[in-house]
Specification:
The protein is α+β, with helices and mostly antiparallel strands. It is built from 8 helices and 10 strands.
Length: about 240
């Protein structure tokens, strides 16, 4: 359970029962007492009014009228906003680009310093270009909702990404790669990765990827990806 899901579960538990012990909450979300106490501090910072009752039988209680007053955007959520803007801009259909950039800048300023650092590392891997008009889009499908967060974890932690992949002929294979970059050629999105089995870079269409998951403990080094001349980094696109 990721941090945001865990904190949402704590809030739901407190709203449902009125109060609960730290031990009960820890058991409910599957973490230690210390982690729950950190989550409670974080929830208070977000605007939730949570009271503590010390002593035997004590616990924590949520003020039923309190609500979240600060935004809780994850790195992948902000990145999703950025790459969506990048994709629309690359397609030449973003009439209010200055307003979009100003809004995204405000979001970045509201992020904690560690998230800003991760976001900037994330943006370094984002490249945008133009799709060939000869590209066949007849089999374009939806992208797995779990792919972005799985890519985020694998890329930022420097671990392998494993997934099921369906090629252009419909053949399904399991792949385990080193994710190096993300490429947007609207309307196609690609994970660009080093494939250890083939000793070369491969472009994987994101709509053909399913069941993505980071592989803990299997690290890799960042590599320079040789993009074509018409592909540019995101930061250069918005300069």
């Amino acid at each position: 359970m990721i941090v945001r899901e865990r904190q949402d579960a704590i809030v739901r538990q407190l709203r449902r029962n009125g109060s609960a012990t730290v031990d009960t909450l820890a058991q409910e979300v599957g973490v230690s007492r210390r982690t729950v106490l950190r989550d409670i501090c974080a929830l208070r910072d977000q605007g939730f009014v949570i009271y503590s009752e010390p002593g035997p039988g004590g616990g924590v209680q949520l003020d039923p009228t309190s609500v979240q007053t600060t935004a809780r955007l994850s790195v992948s959520e902000v990145f999703a906003l950025l790459i969506s803007v990048a994709a629309v801009r690359a397609a030449g259909n973003l009439p209010f680009s200055q307003l979009a950039d100003a809004g995204l800048a405000k979001i970045e300023k509201a992020l904690p310093s560690d998230k800003v650092r991760d976001l900037r590392r994330f943006l370094d891997c984002l490249h945008v270009g133009q799709l060939s008009p000869l590209q066949d889009l007849s089999d374009l499908g939806p992208i797995d909702a779990n792919l972005l967060t799985s890519f985020e974890t694998a890329f930022l932690d420097g671990v392998h990404l494993r997934f099921q992949y369906r090629d252009a002929k419909g053949r399904q294979t399991e792949r385990e790669v080193e994710p190096q970059a993300m490429l947007i050629l609207p309307p196609l999105w690609y994970v660009v990765a080093w494939d250890p089995m083939r000793h070369d870079f491969r472009h994987f269409r994101m709509d053909r990827i399913s069941c993505p998951e980071p592989v803990a403990g299997k690290g890799f080094r960042r590599r320079h990806v040789p993009f074509d001349e018409d592909v540019c980094p995101y930061k250069e696109l918005v300069a």
